[in-house]
Amino acid sequence: MINKKAIQKRRMMSYFIEAANQIIEEEGMEGVTVRKVADLAGYNSATLYNYFENLDHLIFFASMKHLKEYALNLPVYLKGTKDSLDKYFRIWQCFCYYSYNNSKAYQLIFFEKFSTTLKDAIKEYYEIFPEELGDQLDELLPMLLVQNIYERNLSLLKACAAEGLLEEMHLKEINEMSLLIYQGMFNSVLKNQVDYSMEEAVDRTLKYIKQTIASYNI
């Protein structure tokens, strides 16, 4: 049976999200206000607060559209993978490619204040817009629905340990080093401090992560 209330909620949230994205594209993130979004969507500010906790909540949801390409293309990257470690590298390759090519949005989702102040926001978003998650392997859903990037990566490393490809005692160190490598390259891309292509940035990140893993391989 169709849940009319859920459909109405999705429709209304979409109006506000689309309005917020339009303002972001035209004026930048700093141009987004509750009043502007409500006016553009054709509703009043009070109505907006029926669907979003605050302006941060709305901006976060508006930014989530930039994860859609990553999520929908992830299964393509994972075709033919032979084990969890192979999946780990392919997931990093996919994530690096899309995050480097849309660094401002990924910065907001995973590294700004929203990543800590809006608990379970990614999970909430996909519950409302499940089609943007695509057709994912069940084993990857715990990673994809978690907002904290450290927890996301650690869940993948635990799968490698479960297959005997890494030792449990090394996972936290590998997790930290992999993320330090990624964040270093990500920040360089974000600040336009690289003089090579995004493809090269992805290749270098993967190379360094693989070298880190190799030093811990059983």
TrEMBL record:
<feature type="domain" description="HTH tetR-type">
    <location>
        <begin position="10"/>
        <end position="70"/>
    </location>
</feature>
<dbReference type="InterPro" id="IPR009057">
    <property type="entry name" value="Homeodomain-like_sf"/>
</dbReference>
<dbReference type="GO" id="GO:0003677">
    <property type="term" value="F:DNA binding"/>
</dbReference>
<dbReference type="Pfam" id="PF00440">
    <property type="entry name" value="TetR_N"/>
</dbReference>
<dbReference type="InterPro" id="IPR001647">
    <property type="entry name" value="HTH_TetR"/>
</dbReference>
<keyword id="KW-0238">DNA-binding</keyword>
<protein>
    <submittedName>
        <fullName>Transcriptional regulator, TetR family</fullName>
    </submittedName>
</protein>
<feature type="DNA-binding region" description="H-T-H motif">
    <location>
        <begin position="33"/>
        <end position="52"/>
    </location>
</feature>
